[in-house]
Amino acid sequence: MWSEISKIIGANPVMTIVITIIGTFSIWMYKEFKEMMTQKKKARLASIDEKIKINNQLYASAAALTHDSDNRELRIAFMNKIGEYSSLLSEDVQYVARDYCKYGDAQYLGSLMALVEVDLHRFNKERRRITEEEDSTDVINYVFKLVDPLKPLFAAWLFISFMLLSITSYYLQPLFYHKVLVIVISATVLLSAIQAYVLISLAMAKQLVRHRAQKWLIFISIMGAPILSLLHSALTFLSLAIQITAIILLLRLNNKKKKGIITLE
What we know:
By secondary structure, the chain is mostly helical.
């Protein structure tokens, strides 16, 4: 088998060039993805350390203020910290902190401290996970580190192959209507694949959070919509409409702001 393959490659210089280009490009992308993942982990760890430091300072400042709520200097220092650290605080902490600054009610400090404790527990847990993965000498973990860059590499080649197949199919269609169908089908399949890839990647990285049934219904709608194209070509446009509607609903859910005052009494 291998001798036959080598004969084919040896007798076909074009095939040799193509394989050389693909191999070189794959090796280069593997190294780039590996470096990107390493830098991403370092940046994530630095970000977590910064958030742990800031939340600890905020907790200490809030604790001091609870024992001396009438101290004007402590209140000013606390409000300055809120303004300085706002972008690095969780949404819930920001809401409670703003409510305290607005109303000056000491009960918000207890709620804020409880929320900060939750965030600190989450940050410390994530930090331990990252450092354990980096410092682990286990053979299986080492193999997983080598395999990790292959995932985006495989996805990149799959995307390139899909685009080449779609473009080829587009130019082979005799009628304009069929060309439009190819474009729409390619778009729906691509959206579905991206959604599936994101969910699978998050699940494998153990970062897939629990969502409400409403969100899972949207995810399933995006991933399953291209199936309609298999039933009838006319349903292709309905598939795209379903996906666009689902994406709009998802964006609205993600951008929906929490309202009201948060207190933990």
